[in-house]
Design brief:
This protein is of the alpha+beta class and about 775 residues long. The protein is about 35% helix and about 20% strand. The strands form nine sheets. A five-stranded antiparallel beta sheet has the order 7-6-14-13-12, sandwiched between helices. A five-stranded mixed beta sheet has the order 21-27-26-23-24, with no helix packed on it. The chain binds zinc ion (ZN) (2 copies).
């Protein structure tokens, strides 16, 4: 080969080696010095239209809100690129021409350069602020190459707009446009963008709000330069030049403090909620006005949640009446706080009982004193109502029928459903919960309860309410059949009920709603949760201190606010009410039992039922009895005389109802005492010992021994009962009277025999203790 060719080859080889070496060096450096591009942004919370409603400082006390691609309007992009780095889309992070120019300037003028920074290099500098030395300039160029290697041009521009300083502790165009112009970056005008873009040059002397005149002069210089360079049309420039600059620094929005804090804890830079700001502000105003009125009753707080049922979104959330109120704990989040739910779980329970086929709205229960192993629930008004229908029991929120229904349906069935509906505290406590849970002896939050009620509005399908746009996809869980839900909705929408607020002037445009109230033990919490097809609104009122107030009740303290809110957000609604679903049918039932009528049933009424699910037991509420002509003696087939008798139909009345009637001196058609000469020993109608409870332990004070009660219920044909303690005769007493005795320590057998010879034994254990 010739020398010329050899030299050529050698040059190519050397060039290749050099390029390769530089490449390897850069890659090695890049691995050794990774980009410091972990940026902490301010958490911002937005409403459903992406408007910022709350923002938090970063841990280094900066307003550094993340600008999303959608925030960068074409106008913003164009203006920034034209001003900062015209060749941004063409250079590899450093602009060789500028570098050469800068180097030349440095050599000939011996001064450190300040210009020649590309947008990428400015990002590098913002990520790693250093003094402007030649060495650091070189480092910036290396970082710029790294950035270009890792990110797209759009991402680098976005980083620039996120990090550029705009005075004080404001970084990034999103924070700047929000805090100076109270708008999002995509709504900035050319004049506003221009004004902002000159601040990073001298952030300490060009302060929006303080040196606006100065900024205006600088802004217009740049606008005129753009005019000369034909970056924008003359009209656009002319408009921008005439735009005044009146901005000053505002404060970051602080709306929905409790919800924002709750969501911030879950993480994320930008949290887009489903809050509808208009509705939110309306509801907040109503809460504030209403609590001002409650204040005179010493009730200081309230919390409200509004759910849009069709999209299962939380559109309003009020954690307390006034967040800034430090005396009454305004910072507490009353919507998430775990409190006693009072009677608010009853509708779900009755729905479950209907779905289990146990009951229908006209099923008759007894509302009388009961005692389950020492648990003796009382009604709110401490009265008993005797026979009641499910509908009446739910409307009047009776406690004893609810406890009986829970016993019949099973506590675990209810707990499981509540766990499915995200009742966390109940899930946690499930092994400890007893029958009292249906009366509020458990913990639940307004969030949980409002979520549950929104499933009544959704034909029995529970979907976890979504606070944020990213929560929208939640599994659907059917908790009640459409039929049972319809029946519950029907009952809860009746107006003539005891928990209708007194003094409420109904307005004709109030939409139809279904609602249930609750009052917790000790009158600490008043609840009212209502819904129609569109909205579910949950209300809690009370004191965060836990102070009980005698006048506090779900009906009179919480429901008026519920009505006010519906009146405001759903005023004059033309939404129709829930339709009777196909699997819900109607039938005629006996008015006395709610069962399928038999020939003896005198009164009947209409009832809803679920075909193939609801019980089809026939009413068997009466019996034919052979009595003497004077109606003083009853006979059985064994002892009936050959003549002088007649047959009569008597209503069957359970022993506990007989006791209830006897105690209240309510007359009823009683079967006369059985023929005393009859030999037959009855096996049916054995006495029931109500107190003490079988297999229970009783503690008796050594110092001050209180006697135990002996209470039994017996058949209507019984006049006298005989008590035995440990097989020894103790006392004979008229049926239906209470007796007392002081037992000995240890196991005790108690027997009760009626005057027909039917006997019942129970066993208890007695311990004497120092009380
Ligand atoms: Zn009947
Ligand atoms: Zn007989």
């Amino acid at each position: 080969m010739t020398i010329k060719k050899f030299i050529q080859k050698s040059i190519i080889r050397k060039t290749l080696i050099t390029i390769l070496s530089i490449g390897i060096l850069l890659i090695s450096l890049s691995i050794a010095f990774p980009l410091p591009d972990k940026i902490e942004y301010s958490t911002i919370i937005t409403d459903n239209k992406q408007q910022v409603i709350h923002a938090y400082l970063t841990s280094d006390q900066k307003w550094r809100m993340r600008t999303e691609a959608a925030d960068i309007s074409p106008l913003l992009r164009k203006t920034i690129i034209e001003k900062e780095d015209k060749y941004f889309y063409y250079h590899p992070g450093i602009n060789p021409l500028s570098v050469i120019r800068a180097v030349a300037k440095n050599i000939f003028h011996f001064k450190r350069t300040s210009g020649a920074s590309t947008i990428t290099m400015q990002v590098a500098r913002a990520l790693e602020p250093k003094q402007r030395t030649l060495f650091n300039k070189t480092r910036e160029m290396f970082r710029a190459l790294q950035l270009e290697w890792k990110y797209s041009k759009e991402e680098i521009l976005q980083l620039y707009l996120n990090l550029v300083p705009y005075g004080g502790n404001i970084e990034g165009v999103k924070s700047a446009s929000l805090l100076y112009f109270n708008k999002s970056p995509d709504h900035l005008s050319l004049a506003e963008i221009m004004a902002l873009s000159i601040i990073p040059n001298r952030p300490s002397s060009l302060v929006i709000g303080k040196s606006n005149a100065h900024i205006l002069v600088e802004r217009n210089k740049w606008l005129r330069r753009f005019a000369r360079e034909k970056v924008f049309t003359d009209k656009e420039i002319e408009d921008a030049l005439h735009e005044p600059l009146t901005a000053s620094r505002g404060s970051a929005p602080r709306l929905l403090p409790q919800l924002s804090y709750k969501l911030k804890k879950q993480g994320g830079d930008i949290i887009n909620t489903n809050i509808e700001l208009n509705t939110q502000l309306k509801v907040e105003k109503l809460v504030q006005d209403y609590v001002r009125f409650l204040y005179f009753k010493n009730i200081r707080n309230a919390a409200v949640i509004v759910i849009d049922n069709s999209l299962h979104k939380v559109i309003s959330y009020v954690g307390s009446a006034n967040f800034l109120d430090t005396i009454d704990g305004g910072q507490v989040n009353g919507a998430a706080a775990i409190r006693q739910p009072g009677s608010t779980l009853k509708p779900l329970l009755y729905g479950l009982a209907i779905d289990a086929g146990l009951m229908t709205p006209q099923s008759v229960m007894t509302d009388i004193a009961v005692n389950y192993n020492g648990y003796a629930p009382e009604n709110y008004d401490k009265k008993f109502n005797g026979y009641v229908t499910l509908e009446y029991a739910l409307e009047h929120s009776l406690n004893i029928p609810a406890v009986k229904t829970l016993r019949a349906t099973g506590k675990n069935t209810l707990v499981q459903k509540l766990a499915d509906c995200d009742f966390d505290q109940i899930k946690k406590d499930q092994s400890r919960l007893g029958l009292s849970m249906i009366l509020g002896g458990c913990g639940a939050s307004l969030e949980e309860l409002t979520g549950l009620y929104s499933s009544f509005a959704r034909e029995g399908v529970y979907i976890k309410p979504a606070f944020t746009k990213s929560d929208i996809d939640q599994p659907k869980k059917r908790i009640l059949s459409t039929a049972a839900t319809f029946m519950i909705n029907d009952i809860l929408s009746k107006i003539n009920r005891p928990d209708f607020p007194v003094n409420w002037q109904s307005t004709e445009r109030m939409p139809k709603i279904a609602w249930k109230t609750g009052t917790s033990y000790g009158r600490r919490d008043a609840w009212s949760i209502g819904y129609n097809k569109k909205f579910t609104v949950g209300i809690w009122t009370g004191n965060f201190s836990g102070l009980g107030i005698p006048e506090l009740s779900g009906a009179n303290t919480a429901t008026p606010l519920l009505f006010k809110i519906f009146n405001s957000i759903d005023y004059d609604s033309d939404e129709e009410w829930f339709q009777q679903p196909k699997n819900c049918d109607t039938r005629i039932v006996c008015a006395e039992t709610g069962l399928i009528p038999s020939e003896d049933c005198k009164e009947v009424r209409m009832d809803y039922f679920i075909p193939l699910v609801s019980s089809i037991v026939k009413c068997n509420n009466s019996e034919e009895v052979i009595v003497s002509a004077d109606n003083k003696i009853s006979y059985c087939k064994n002892c009936m005389p050959e003549n002088g008798y007649r047959k009569r139909v008597f209503k069957i009345i359970a022993p506990e109802m007989q006791a209830y009637f006897a105690e209240r001196k309510i007359a009823y058609d009683k079967i006369p005492p059985h023929n005393s000469d009859c030999e037959k020993i009855f096996h049916e109608g054995v006495p029931q010992i109500i107190f003490p409870s079988d297999n229970s332990e009783y503690l008796i004070s050594k110092k001050n021994a209180e006697p135990l009660q002996l209470v039994c219920n017996v058949s209507s044909d019984v006049n006298k009962v005989f008590w035995y303690i440990d097989n020894k005769f103790y006392k004979s007493t008229p049926a239906g009277t209470k007796q007392f005795f002081i037992p000995a320590e240890g196991p005790v057998k108690i027997s009760c025999t009626d005057d027909k010879g039917r006997n019942k034994d129970i066993r208890i254990t007695v311990r004497y203790v120092n009380l």
